Amino acid sequence: MYYPYMNYNQQPYYMQHPGYESMDEMRAVEEEVYRPDDAEDAPTTPPPSQQPVMPATFTSATPVQSNQLQAMMCRCLGNWGFIGLRMPGPFGRDFWFYPTEVRRSGVSGYTWRAGRRQKVSYRYSQIRNFMCFG
Q1: In the CATH hierarchy, which fold is given to the domain comprising 34-46+56-132?
Q2: HSE value, Cβ hemisphere, 13 Å, CA-based, for 109
């Protein structure tokens, strides 16, 4: 649809006003990614070959709160940990996880499958528990 009263040669609104931020820029600031320089890299070694012996509280029906999960993940950046999901996913319900990015709403990192690492992301609402072994 063509509107004759519009100036189609005019720059976008956000270019005219320096205080305006586009949605993409605001979203990047809002996420608050915590990623130290040394944890950006993927794991170079596979996780331990055996599943760890977990305390009964790891599999309890009461999941850990998201702020506690965020703190646990921050302390484990760059190390293998064991994650428990509320619902089984493509890697199962409990598996090794190597966190590399901790955000306000979730975490990203790597898991090990068929001898290869694979990048994954989870929201805290999907995670039941986490234990670090690094």
Answers
A1: SH3 type barrels. (2.30.30)
A2: 31
Residue ranges per structural domain of the chain? 34-46+56-132
- From CA 73, how far away is CA 49, in angstroms rounded? 21
pTM above 0.85? Answer: no
Strand (E) or helix (H) holding 31: helix 23-31
Which of 39, 19, 23, 40 is CA-nearest to residue 31?
Answer: 23
Per-residue pLDDT of the chain (134 residues; tens, 9 = 90+): 555 655 556 555 544 444 444 444 444 444 455 554 444 578 888 999 888 887 777 766 677 888 888 999 999 998 999 999 988 887 788 899 999 999 989 999 999 888 888 999 999 999 999 999 87
CA–CA distance, 28 with 110 (Å, rounded to integer): 22
In the DSSP assignment, the letter for residue 61 is S
What does residue 130 show for φ and ψ, rounded to 5 degrees? Answer: -155, 140
By three-state DSSP, how is residue 78 classified?
Answer: coil
